[in-house]
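Input sequence (251 aa), recorded before submission:
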Amino acid sequence: MDTDTPTTGQVILVGGGPGDPDLLTIGGLRALREADVVLYDHLAPLACLDQTRPGVTLIDVGKIPRGCQTAQTDINALLIDHARRGRTVVRFKGGDPFVLGRGSEEWLACAEAGIPIRVIPGVSSAIAGPELAGIPLTHRGITQNFSVVSGHVGPDHPASTVNWDALAQSTGTIVILMGVAHLPEICTGLTSRGLDGDTPAAIVAKAALPDQQVVRGTVATLPALADAADIQPPALTVIGAVVALGLAPVG
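Predicted structure, token format:
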């Protein structure tokens, strides 16, 4: 047997949840503890990196809005390079890797390179954020469905592939991720397509963190309210009748 032949390692895509270390899964924690290399985003629960073993290589590959950026091609190359050196590589991401997280792009890049890869799902902020603000996405007698869309560009931008016309006519709950910068355009776009401007709406910033902010209003009033509260990313917007339920902790 040729002992000089390198052994291919593996890549594990780990969803870290919305930010609170308590919301990382047991499987995700186990992967971090076994990792030789961790490539992490700034929205992952960074306190969990303390659980990695001595000597682990930690690499910040975050994409900060209007700040430092790591190109996706560079991230893919790092995953493949370290795995080819026989290492267990964890790609530590916020939320869930496959919910607007480019995890599938990383999967495809590794698979094409012949790198073993698996995913450990995470708690998506699209669901956890509203819940932690007291907003259920469905409620018997109110709505039986919800949609999660990206708001990284406005409804009329040519790069948007969201069917905003269908959303405006929907009776379900709408969750918009990455939409802070384009919130006025989004709300105007929805009302111009037929959504009632009095529909309850809320924005949840820094969900699951100690400084979580929740601003409630309507589709018509939310942009001004969010601006007055100086809401900054990361934040998500929830639109629909369920927002008016206003669940609050008891006891």
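Checked by second reader. Strands lie at 10-15, 37-40, 57-60, 88-93, 117-120, 146-150, 173-177, 200-205, 213-218, 235-239.
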